Request: fold
Amino acid sequence: MQTGVFPRPALDLLLCAPRGFCAGVDRAIQIVELALEKYGAPVYVRHEIVHNKFVVESLRNKGAVFVEELDEVPDDGAPVVFSAHGVPKSVPAEAQRREMFFLDATCPLVSKVHKEAILHNKRDREILLIGHAGHPEVIGTMGQLPEGTVSLIETVEDARTYEPRTGKQLAWISQTTLSVDDTAEIVAELSARFPDIAQPHKDDICYATTNRQEAVKHIAGQCDAVIVVGAPNSSNSQRLREVAAREGCHKAFLLQRAGEIDWSQFDGIKTLGVTAGASAPEVLVEEVIDAFRERFEVCLKTVRTAEENIAFNLPRELRDAPVTSG
Ligand code: 2E7
Ligand code: F3S
Reply:
């Protein structure tokens, strides 16, 4: 007989799919792991390979050394990996000058935006980058061209007040992890003001960002609370939290680990939504779900809004390396 044991309250947990790792993150982490296997430790990594402390810590335990700039890397012949977010042209240039062996883990979908910027410049266009100041992807994309060539547009207000600096045709490109809806508003303003502005086929927001936002949007309205597993410096994860909040879920939280859950916020909830940013490992999602299972009678339902089957090739140097067991 279970006297004194209160029944746990029932909780419907809606688990978004797709969520978590994208193809660019998978590739970037594999690059560091394969470099460690093939060349041995240390392997230097410029910037967090992806914006997740758990991932960074696991790689550090295997022998990766994280730095912010190349001047922190000694000339000892060890490989240097550039993070998934991309780097300004000055970074590989400096690595070449110092005859470093480097591996570029820039997501191929970011490299595509870099190529667009270079092409617009070749076609003599004035380039606007829609994105967030200070983010490493934005620094990398702006740094594909000489300083002052690319202008940053962060808000609809920026789009409304932008004064072209040259008489050239305008073109816009974007960061890959933006809010789909905010970007559409900015683009509408730019297109209204500058009807002949050149633009990408659709936008530069990647498939993973788009799919994860769509998934959380789909469930947010039915949820009393939504948890996004991800880091505060992760742009795509922040956008997921915002999307959930805007869809009317008043309790939308971004957190890195189960230990950060403020349980007072979840008293009396009936339906919880869970998703994860593109840099958050599934093991951390499981950790959060397990923490809820300890306090609630959880009925878990996966809600899938898109299928993903994208994988990117590894850099040539690592293609013949043995595959890691995980
Ligand atoms: C690279 C790019 O590491 P993240 O959290 O990065 P963001 O850009 O969202 O802060 O997520 C994976 C990733 C996303 N975009 C890596 Cl360009
Ligand atoms: Fe690439 Fe998008 Fe992931 S730009 S790293 S596929 S979130």
